[in-house]
Amino acid sequence: SRSCSASGRVYEHGEQWSENACTTCICDQGEVRCHKQACPPLRCKKGQRRAQRHGECCEECMPSAGSCSHGGTVRYQDEMWKGSACEFCVCDSGRVTCQTGECAKVECAQGEELIHLDGKCCPECISRNSYCVYEENAEFMSSNVSEVKRIPEGEKWEDGPCKVCECQGAQVTCYEPSCPPCPVATLAQVTEGRCCPDCTS
User: Fold this and answer.
1) Where are the alpha helices (DSSP H) in the chain?
2) Closest CA to 20 of 54, 51, 59
3) Which of 65, 105, 113, 162 is the most exposed place for a label (fewest CB within 10 A)?
């Protein structure tokens, strides 16, 4: 079965994911098929305003008082969210307060080590062969410094437009996905930043 790649990740046939709050996609035999949710028309009463909750697709009517604006997103009274991997924020009477999560002191068992996995707040004890250390290709990054990442076992990702990597048995294996051939009487046109050529008639 053919896998799909979308926004830097690799999905197997039949796997579903959310592209954004409004769009759900599925991998179908190497083709990405997406469905966009339609929003109903909205009219708000006096003293309310249209606003979009973080992570929701459609706008809703919210009381004008007490909400916060944080990083371009409207948040509501008592709403809590994650600011970054280690930061938790809350909206209180129009003000945003954020706190940094504290990490507990951890003693690891024999054969384990304390590892800070990519995207996690606190380091955790991981057995020595259940993660990969991977140096990301500097070519595709804005700064020319390569970045060392610790990747959990079983994870797949894209490194650049034409390279798929996987962490298995503490080893990183990378391969170039095969491109489907263009149908007869069409031309293969290579687009910069994309792996497979587009077929144009």
Assistant:
1) none
2) 54
3) 105
Q: Rg of the chain over CA atoms, in angstroms?
A: 22
Residue 130: pLDDT band with limits 50, 70, 90: confident
Residue 180 CA to residue 18 CA, distance in Å, equals: 25
Q: Which two tokens stand for residue 83?
A: 């600011």
What is the C-alpha to C-alpha distance for residues 201 and 183, in angstroms, rounded to an integer? 9
Give, in degrees to the nearest 5, the angle at Cα 182 between 180 and 183: 120
Cα→Cα distances 152→11, 69, 158, Å: 16, 35, 15
Q: 152: which strand partners?
A: 131
Where does residue 169 rank: exposed (0-12), middle (13-18), buried (19+ CB within 10 A)?
exposed
Nearest to 22 by CA among 43, 41, 38: 38
Question: Which pair of tokens denotes residue 63?
Answer: 């009381």
Which amino acid is located at 27 in the chain?
C
Contact indicator for 87, 70 with CB cutoff of 8 Å: no
- The answer to whether 102 touches 95, Cβ cutoff 8 Å, is no
Close Cβ partners of 108 (under 8 Å, ≥ 6 residues apart) = 114, 125
For 19, the 3-state DSSP assignment is strand
pLDDT digits (tens, 9 = 90+) for 57-113: 888 887 767 778 777 677 877 888 887 778 888 888 778 888 888 888 888 888 788
C-alpha span between 50 and 61 (Å, rounded): 5
